[in-house]
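So, can you check these tokens?
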Amino acid sequence: MSEEIKNEVKMKYSSVVLDNQGCGCGCGCGPEELSSFALDYSKLEGYNKDADYALGCGIPTSFADINKGDTVLDLGSGAGNDVFVARHLVGETGMVIGVDMTAAMIEKANQNKTKLGYQNIEFRLGEIEKLPVENDSINVAISNCVINLVPDKKMAYSEIYRVLKPGGKFVISDIVTSGKLPESLRKSIELYVGCVAGALTKDEYLGIAQSAVFKEVSILEEKEYILPDSYILQYLSKDQFKDFKESGAKILSLTVKGVK
């Protein structure tokens, strides 16, 4: 199943580049009728419109306290949206590395980099569960609504821990749930690529980060994501829909921090 998910993610994200448009759902490439989690980057220093496909669910760089000269790693860097913002923060003396498993995204990101003429940015093709990054080499790891697309989240956080320098930190925006989502919603591969069906509960998510021996794991921002009733009813019977509404289950966007 994990390879099926990865292949579906690669296909969907490749189509974003090839069709030259965002997915419309913010986090991933789910159905267009889902309202967007994506936030407005346009006023941020370093913003590059050509790199923005509205795929995120937060702005992790706003919470990361990135300093001049830092080495920053963006996990699931796409066309480089967060990378270019981070590059402004690290300045000429820093370095930003973007890792993405979709070749089309890496190609687009490098095209954007070439247009901008930056020398201290590097985009690498690879998976988050097996990062092409050296041990103890990163000051700050960021990610924007991507870890939920990774089937093995424990391995992802283990890899983040490996590449961070002692005292380094991650600041990651992602999707979690509060309460129990109906299985028919979770099993939709379309929703998985929209970061919904693959979402862990908030406690599970934080537990994984803590199990990787990160210190000071904390929530920096939390927002609720509302699925339209018309969309939910495609997956649930009326009785199931009623139970779902009464359960109080929620889909949340979190920005989480942890220190090595």
User: Anything to note?
Assistant: DSSP finds nine helices and eight strands in the chain. The beta strands are 71-75, 95-100, 121-125, 138-144, 164-178, 200-201, 215-225, 250-259. The domain at 2-259 is CATH 3.40.50.150 (Rossmann fold). The chain has a mean pLDDT of 86.
